[in-house]
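Researcher: Quick test of sequence recovery. Tokens follow.
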């Protein structure tokens, strides 16, 4: 049973939803898609709709035999018109239902509790059966991020369900850019608002595999930190001993800190943002045991700086390429593949013979196969071996195709491949 903390919202602060659920009918093909567990019903897939309502209204999809198929949250402001909560059998969507889904998600993360880690994803939206809702933990602070305003009318109920399951004293609300624009449906709620607990005056400090980091939970990217790369950071730590390391698109220095912890000879963090590099410096200071490892910050465009480093003849034993998404939309896919090829060529150009290149993609619109092909084209005629392929960590499960976005290749340069080595999902 959670320790209840007074919330700064009440059930009366946000209007309820209509008691009568909306009704939808779709084609046989879309019926099969929903029956398989896909969490989205797009506006163009709706053949018939009975009723209208505000975001958060319950919508029920009936099959061609007029039997229940799925129930979800309606959002008329989004092309994802219905976010499916449950398919195949009816359910009452109430606090007990939310609590059950949350409990299932929390149980999946239990293996992380004994790893010196207090920063991780508790709920991963669609992949944990709560489409459009993400819940992250940073030490004593929870961060709830909403990607659809359909969750606003259910917010109080969801918060009560969370408090029943986890006793943390503070929860911060984050809203996606799209949701922030729907001011008529937010009822005064704002991005970065503390919904319960004491106000925050500074970043939250949390642990990841025993290392300390800061998270800017009020206004930082995502929910304050890139939690999804935790396992890949640990792999870099295991590879870094005695190596000169270059971390490209370093952001707040996650890979850099891990490399230093792995006894790297020296680390360079490269990022366009001075603000991000300042955070990287602070993250090193949070871990005094890393003080003996030289850490340099290099500000500038990654593509231009990699070209400059090559021109200067600088080489590194381990280079990490972890760019932001190059394909925000499906239409960006081809341009993204060109960017991955170019970035790989530039990154490989500053890797020492027999060095290691780590190439990552967080673009959901680029498949694993296409990403790997782009990287291989970028490597040109150089011999190499993929020593490891990685995907999502335990707290970022994948339950549907579009939910699979994270990919990484660990590449041994100037090495004849014996086989396409081990692969992780």
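Model:
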């Amino acid at each position: 049973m959670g320790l209840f903390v007074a919330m700064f919202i009440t059930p009366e602060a946000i209007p309820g939803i209509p008691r009568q659920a909306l009704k939808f009918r779709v084609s046989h093909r879309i019926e099969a898609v929903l029956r398989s567990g896909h969490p989205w019903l797009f506006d163009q897939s709706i053949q018939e709709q009975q009723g209208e309502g505000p975001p958060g209204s319950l919508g029920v999809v009936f099959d061609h035999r007029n039997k229940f198929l799925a129930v979800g949250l309606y959002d008329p402001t989004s092309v994802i018109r219905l976010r499916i909560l449950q398919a195949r059998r009816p359910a009452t969507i109430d606090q007990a239902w939310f609590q059950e889904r949350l409990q299932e998600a929390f149980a999946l993360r239990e293996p992380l509790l004994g790893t010196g880690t207090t920063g991780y994803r508790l709920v991963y939206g669609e992949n944990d059966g709560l489409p459009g809702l993400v819940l992250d933990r940073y030490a004593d602070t929870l961060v709830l991020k909403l990607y659809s305003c359909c969750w606003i009318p259910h917010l109080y109920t969801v918060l009560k369900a969370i408090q029943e399951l986890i006793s943390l004293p503070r929860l911060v609300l984050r809203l996606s850019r799209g949701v922030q624009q729907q001011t008529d449906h937010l009822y005064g709620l704002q991005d970065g608002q503390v919904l319960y607990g004491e106000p925050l005056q500074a970043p939250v400090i949390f642990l990841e595999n025993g290392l300390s980091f800061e998270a800017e939970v009020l206004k930082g990217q995502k929910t304050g930190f890139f939690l999804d790369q935790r396992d890949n950071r640990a792999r870099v730590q295991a590879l870094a001993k005695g190596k000169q390391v270059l971390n490209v698109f370093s952001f707040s220095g996650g890979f850099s800190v891990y490399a230093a912890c792995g006894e790297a000879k020296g680390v360079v963090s490269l990022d366009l943002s001075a603000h991000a590099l300042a955070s990287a410096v602070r993250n090193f200071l949070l871990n005094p045991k890393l003080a003996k490892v030289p850490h340099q910050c290099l500000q500038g465009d990654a593509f231009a700086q990699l070209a400059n480093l090559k021109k200067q003849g600088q080489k590194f034993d381990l280079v990490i390429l972890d760019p932001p998404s190059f394909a925000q939309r499906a239409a960006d896919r081809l341009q993204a593949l060109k960017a991955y090829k170019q970035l790989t060529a530039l990154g490989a150009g500053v890797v020492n013979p027999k060095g290691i290149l780590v190439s990552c993609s967080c673009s959901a619109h680029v498949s694993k196969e296409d990403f790997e092909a782009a990287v291989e084209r970028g490597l040109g005629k150089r011999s190499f071996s993929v020593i490891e392929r990685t995907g999502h960590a335990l707290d970022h499960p994948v339950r549907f195709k579009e939910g699979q976005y994270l990919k990484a290749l660990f590449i041994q340069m100037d090495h004849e491949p014996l086989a396409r080595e081990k692969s992780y999902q």
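Residues 333-348 form the longest helix (16 residues).
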